[in-house]
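Trying the structure run again after the queue cleared.
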Amino acid sequence: MGMFRWLASCLLVLAANSAAAMVLPDIEDLQPDQIKPWFAGGFTLDSQISSPGYRLVYRNGEVQGAVFYSHQITPIPAYSGTPIATLIAIDTRAAIIGLKIVQHEEPILVVGVKEEDLKRFTDQYINLFALDKVRVDASNRAGYVGIDGISSATITAMVLNRSIMVSAKKVSQALGWPSHVEALAATPQEALTEADRWKERLTPWLDRLPTVITVTLALGLLLFILFFQDWLVRRPKLYGIVRISYMMFTVVFIGYVFSAQLSIVNILAFIQTLRYGFTWDTLMLDPAIFLIWSFIAVSILLWGRGVFCGWLCPFGAIQDLIHEASLKLKIPTFEFPDTVHQRLWAIKYFILIALVGISLDSFSTAATMAEVEPFKTVLTMGFAREWGYVTYAATLLFISIFNSKFFCKYLCALGAGLSILGRFRVFDWMRRRNECGKPCQACATLCQNGAIKPTGEIIESECHFCLECQVAYFDDHMCPPLVEKRKRRERREQARNRPAVVKIIESSPDS
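Done. C-alpha cells:
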C-alpha cells in the first residue's frame, strides 16, 4: 500500500505542477505568406476577425474567400486529448481550396504515419464543398462523399474530418455563401439539439454495426465467465477451451480486425482531455475502443486491473499463446528469483510516472517515448516499420517463449496505471485456503505472473485474473489439501468395503 500511495502522490504532484497548456496558433497571427499558395497574387488579408473566427481575403477590393483555423471554430479534442490545428481556406462558392495541418500532438502522426500519407489524406478535401456530407471510409453510403482514411489512424482521421467540415460549414453559413448543396435546408450547428448531437456521435456506430455487435457479445461472454467463474474452473477441460479460444479472439479481432489495442497513450490522452475540456465526441468515434474502455471502467472496480490484462489485451494474449505453445513443446522456461522479480515490477511504475510527467509538458514527446509499448508495431502496423521497432517487438515476443508475459510484468506502463486504479476495487473474488502458502505452494508455482506471495496471498495489483489458481483450488488432483482429503476419503471407502469382502469369503460353501 505504501508504494501505491507514493506513486499516486507523484502523479498528483506532476499534474498540479503542470499549468502550461499547448499553445495553438491564432488566426489573429496569420501571415499572408501562409496562404499564398491558395490565392492569386495581389491579395490582401483582412485584419479584422469576424465571428465565428475567420478572416476575409480580398483582391482588388473584392472578396476572394476566407481563412480560419479549425480548432478555433470547432475545437474537438483528438486522440491526444488536444485539438488538431488545421488551417483552411474556402472561396466564395464555399469550396475548400486550401488545407494544411499546422500543429498537432497525435501519437500516430508523430510516429507511424509518413508525411506523404498525411498530405494524401488532406488533399482529398480540395474542391469539396462546406455543406457536403463527408465521411471517412463511407464511399458506398448514399448521400455521402467518401474519403480514404489514414492507415492505422482511424480515430485521428475521423476527428480531422469532423473538425474540418463542421468548421467550414459554420464559416460558410455565417457568410451566407452558396454551395451546390441547398444552403437553406442545412441546419446551423448552433441550432442542433442535444439529441441531434448524439445522433452525430452515433454515424460511426451505425457504419460499424457488426463491430459493435461482435464486441458487445464478446464482452457479455466475458462478464458471464467472470460472474460464474467458480462453475467454469470446476471443469478444467472446458475452462482450457474457453480460455484459449478467448485469447485467440482477442488477438485476431480486438487486436487486428478492430484495431482496438488499448495503450498508455489512451490514459495520457484522457488526462489531456480533462485539462482541455471533457467531450464525448472523440471517445465515441471508435465503437470498439469505447466499449472496451467502458467495460474496463466497470470491471476494474469489481475485479481490478486483471480483467483487461488477462483477457482483453491483444499483445498480452499473444504472449500467453506463445508461452502456452512453448509449454506444450516442453521448451525449458526460466523465472527470476523472487527478490529480483519483485524489484523488476517497479520498472513499469517508473515508466508510467515518466510518461505522465512528459505528457503534461509535451504530448507528442510522450507519444514518442510511449514506443516502449510494442503494441503499435505488432498490431496497429503489423511489423511494417523500421527495423529498430520490429527488432524490439520481436525480442519481447521471443522472450515470452521462456518467461511468460515478460513485458506485461516488468515494462507495461498501461498495466501499471490500471494497477493503481485497481486499488479501489470493491470485491475480492479469488478463493484461498488457510493452507495456501503454509505450507502449500502449488498455486504460486502455477502463477506465470508470480503474483502469489510465498505466504499464499494473491498480489491483486499484479494478478491477471487468468483463473489458473482457481482451477487448482477446486481440483482434488492438483490442490494438496484437497489431494489429502481425497486420499483419506478413498482410504475410508476402501476400509468400509474390505470387511464386506472378507465376510463374503468366510460364508462361501467352499471355505
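The two ends are 74 Å apart (CA to CA). Worth checking whether this holds up in the mutant runs.
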